Amino acid sequence: MTPPLPSLVFASPRKLPRVGALSGRVVVLDIAFASMGLGRGFDKTTGRFIELLGPRLARWVDHHDHPLHARFARDERFVLCTKAEHGACPEMIDPALVESTGPVDTIVCHFDLDGLYAAAKWILGGREPYPGADDDARVIDTRIGTASAEADRIDQALRAHWLDHTLKLRIVRYLVSGLRAGVERDSIAEAAADFRRMAATAVGLAERFEVEGDVAFIEVGSSTPPYDKTELLLLGQGKATVSVVLEAGNATIAAPFESGLNFVDLLDLGGGMPTRVNIPRKRLPEALQMIRDELRRRREG
User: Fold this and answer.
1) Which of 237, 235, 253 is nearest to 245 (CA)?
2) What is the pLDDT of residue 39?
3) 218: which of 38, 74, 182, 203 lies 20 to 30 Å off by Cα?
4) Domains in the chain, please, with CATH?
């Protein structure tokens, strides 16, 4: 029997929901603290969100690096670690944590596979939605290893339609219900087919990467057909240790999880995923120089 679903809200560190729109006790899963060095910063986003939730915040579980984790070390509601300690959020959730938290009315989770798998596991009382789901989430989030065909299909669906709220709800229902055939599975398959077309576009774009100082760089124009940025970044990493995709006013910088690079520290971003970050275009020249200098030091050291 499928357990009842609490209210599900999908969010990101810089796009948190209005507290007034959240009902009852709230658990937050796989939402990193906002970077201190970009945008509105921690105090005006994460900090304000925590303050407004007050005692309604039942638990916050996250695995992204941030210097302010220490501030909440004595608050038992916060279960925080680094990406190196836990490659994905679901593996941090177990039956004891869910039981000790008590009933919740709302789950706020990140809108990627890692976040949706964490939400499903929470709804299931800390039990994996299928054997190996925790490993799948870690593989997808770190891009190390081989995920199951099930996880690959869900990841592809999300990457193709990351703004589709209904698809995210259907994915969580699909996981919680035991991967049953039906509209949920069909929706995932259809969205994954769209991804394959976007991935093909990324393969074509990858031919334009320019490599200098072990950094593969490409600027993507506004008229480019839909493509998958993660796929393009991974293709860039096949040409150099670091890949950079510049699109409009934003640059995405990525490196393999096992590279040992930490762009959060290197670029003084104040929190986030160490091996994949976003910075404004104006910071890119300085960032590229710092990254190339770091890569050179590693080669010479």
Assistant:
1) 253
2) 61
3) 38
4) 7-193 (no CATH), 207-300 (3.10.310.30)
